[in-house]
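JOB MANIFEST
job_type = single_chain_structure
chain_count = 1
residues = 254
[input]
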Amino acid sequence: MKTELRQKKLLGDQDPEPVTFVNASSRSPLFLVCEHAGSAIPHDLGDLGLTGTAMEPHRYTDIGAEPLAHAIAEHLKAPLVLQRYSRLVIDCNRPPQSSEAVPAQQDGIVIPGNLGLPDDTRITEIFTPFDTAIEQGLTRSPRKLAISVHSFTPRLVGGPPRPWHCGFLSRRDTTTAQRLMQAVADQDAALVLAVNEPYQIDDETDWFIPAHAEPMGLAHTLIEVRNDLLATPSDVAHWAGILSRAILKLPELQ
């Protein structure tokens, strides 16, 4: 007698939904995304084999990015899509079939639970709902400007200190990155700012900008704030104010 084999579902009743949509009905021309907002790990994946110092928070999520993105969305009454699972489970700002989507290591630490081939259920149950929410949000109302909100660690293992307070990443639309950087600098000349630092956008290691913002012809940038500047609620409120005021200066919101 033939037995039908069914693929086990990854997310159970005890696991959070992968996507939170803030201000979903907003008709703002601005659309916000936070790919690394969460640190959740599906119950069935345990702790991914990580213990001790390997469990440092910056490896799991972009520290401070979720409250920062949420505060900007509330300041500007803009729609925001948040992704709730750790980037160690699946990095939703990577092409889903890339080797970096389910990372074998993060900042010098091997992730035992990710060794071997990527699990397709992570794509179908986490990445795909998030990507679908982005598509729906971008087309629900006319959008002119797309911004992704991230944070970065002040220093990677074995690397030099990163001096920037904030970076603005882009590839084809450097004009928006430059304008936003200038609008931030106008508020505080002491800030160390840069375009395309500490990372750069490319097809192999990025998703939102190459797959959505660029094809739609939207003005766009990916904001990176150093995570030690987002350590407290008052820090987050401070940077949310700076960035919200700067975003309002962009011509797409005039």
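[summary]
The helical segments are 57-60, 65-76, 120-140, 174-185, 208-213, 233-248.
Residues 53 and 109 are 9 Å apart (CA to CA).
exit_status = 0
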